[in-house]
Design a protein that fits this description.
The protein is α/β, with parallel strands linked by helices. Helix content is 53%, strand content 18%. Helix 9 packs across helix 14.
Length: 537
């Protein structure tokens, strides 16, 4: 038996036949043709052999005891892993029904017994080639499917990219339109705003010059574009201005941060200098950074401030003169009350007492008694006024003695619980300092008495080598310092906070007040002991 040497062996061939002679014959034919043969004589063994290792092709006898060829083929085709293995039935039968059944079960061909080597090899070769072609086609189809899927994905991605690009282009157009509109609005704002606006690049060349800047400096915008900002400043300010702007740019602050470099002078086209207040902001990054300067002409404000400062100086001088006049008038009134009115009251009291003793009776509550009581009360009031106007303790014994006496009188009048922390210094302060400090004490306690509704008051007096410090604190109703309240200083003789400050300032001192509504008030006055007074008080 000659083998077909043109056949190209491809994989194992499983031969299933219960007849040993047929099995050996087929094995010899296929082996000589170069195929690897796996002979099996039982259907169950054939199925297990296929599960262990799939052959390239199966030659399957139909009529076998137990599991016949039809059942083996049915099971193979029912399994997804083995359904594509070509099956060729071996049969000596010529019944068309059996052939039809075999093809229905999935067989690819029939080989009739007795076997002819050339026919067997030709059919095996053909079906192996078909199987290989089907496998190749399956692989190509799979590759084509993968390529199609990849192409579909690429097309979809490209479509998405095109849509995204189209959306981006649309968005860019919208943003450009919005930018143009914003620029137009910004230009309109720049033109209409009342303050001068000048934008410069990093070389401080002008790139924007609005209408207000034209009016402010007298230069037309067209003539300023591209010129140095320094032409708008007096020469003495140019170097410091340029250094400030460069230092501000080096900070790296964002365009929302604003640097203010205070008041400087500008120069108009006519050469006239005028005071301006300027703020600078930066935007963008180098080399496209822009600096925008907002300029305000503060000539009128500066003039108003100068007038106000002059009026304040005049007011302070007038207040100081008034305080001096008040002090002198207080001494004069105290002298007249004590020396004249007091003496008259004492004489009146003496005569009333003499008239009462001459009546010779023991009557009470007579007109003379009532007159004596009125006279005694008037004398007490006069003594109190004298002590307030020109306290003798202040002249004779010093500030600490006057402070104790005055605080105790006011505490008795107001019903406070009084706490005094004051010691007599080794050396008395200058008389004008003592008087100024005592008047601040009077004003502070007078405000507590009339307005604070306090139940407890603390007074502190301490003198060091170089300063005298007075402190007054109460637990009264307090007031809002930010509301401009000054202890209701509208009453006659009530200096208020301003009066206290003038008293202290006249001898080089200062007064600080802290108060919160419902939380009491604290006054702290400090007087330097080495500063000469501006004049007698």
């Amino acid at each position: 038996m000659n083998a077909n040497t043109d056949a190209a062996p491809a994989g194992d061939i499983l031969v299933v036949d219960d007849t040993v002679a047929n099995l050996k014959l087929l094995a010899n034919i296929l082996t000589e043709a170069g195929y690897r043969v796996r002979p099996t004589s039982d259907g169950e063994l054939a199925l297990r052999s296929v599960q262990a290792k799939q052959p390239a092709l199966i030659l399957l006898d139909i009529r076998m005891p137990g599991v016949d060829g039809f059942e083996v083929c049915r099971r193979l085709k029912a399994d997804e892993r083995t359904r594509d293995i070509p099956v060729i039935f071996l049969s000596s039968l010529t019944d068309t029904a059996d052939r039809t059944k075999g093809f229905e079960l999935g067989a690819v061909d029939y080989i009739d017994k007795p076997y002819h080597a050339q026919e067997v090899l030709a059919r095996i070769k053909t079906h192996l080639a078909l199987s290989a072609a089907r496998e190749q086609l399956r692989i190509q189809n799979l590759q084509l499917q993968q390529a199609n899927e990849q192409l579909t994905r690429e097309v979809a991605e490209r479509k998405r990219a095109e849509e995204a690009l189209e959306a981006a282009l649309t968005r860019t157009q919208e943003l450009n339109q919005a930018l143009r509109e914003s620029r137009d609005r910004l230009d309109e704002i720049y033109r209409s705003v009342g303050e001068g606006i000048v934008s410069v690049d990093e070389e401080q060349r002008v790139v924007l010059f609005n209408s207000a800047a034209e009016r402010l400096f007298g230069h037309p915008a067209a003539a300023m574009i591209g010129r140095s900002l320094s032409v708008l400043l007096p020469e003495r300010f140019r170097a410091s201005h340029e250094q400030h702007v460069r230092a501000f740019g080096a900070t790296g602050q964002s365009n929302r941060s604003i640097g203010t470099y205070g008041q400087i002078c500008g120069v108009r086209a006519s050469g006239e200098e005028f005071p301006i207040e300027a703020t600078v902001s930066q935007s963008g990054v180098s080399p496209n950074r822009l600096f925008t300067v907002i300029l305000r002409d503060i000539t009128e404000r500066r003039q108003a401030e100068q007038v106000r400062e002059q009026l304040m100086r005049q007011l302070e001088a007038l207040s100081a003169r008034l305080a001096t006049a008040q002090e002198e008038e207080s001494r004069r009134i105290a002298y007249e009350l004590h020396e004249e009115l007091g003496q008259q009251l004492m004489a009146l009291k003496f005569y009333l007492q003499m008239a009462g003793s001459g009546a010779g009776g023991a009557q009470t509550d007579t007109p003379q008694d009532q007159a004596l009581a009125v006279t005694a009360h008037a004398t007490t009031l006069i003594r109190k006024l004298v002590m307030d106007l020109a306290p003798p303790e202040l002249e004779d014994f010093g500030l600490d003695a006057a402070l104790h006496a005055y605080c105790e009188r006011q505490a008795a009048a107001g019903g406070w619980k009084l706490h005094i922390d004051a010691t007599k210094p080794d050396v008395r302060a200058p008389r004008q300092v003592e008087k100024a400090c005592f008047r601040v004490l009077q004003e502070g306690l007078r405000n507590v008495l009339h307005h604070a509704k306090a139940t407890e008051v603390w007074v502190h007096l301490h003198q060091s080598a170089d300063e005298l410090e007075l402190g007054i604190r109460d637990n009264g109703n307090g007031f809002d310092c930010n509301a401009g309240h000054e202890g209701n200083g509208s009453e006659p003789g009530n200096l208020g906070l301003f009066g206290m400050q003038i008293r202290a300032k006249h001898v080089g001192g200062s007064v600080e007040i802290k108060s919160t509504t419902g939380a009491g008030t604290e006054i702290r006055a400090v007087f330097p002991l080495l500063v000469a007074s501006a004049g007698p008080i």
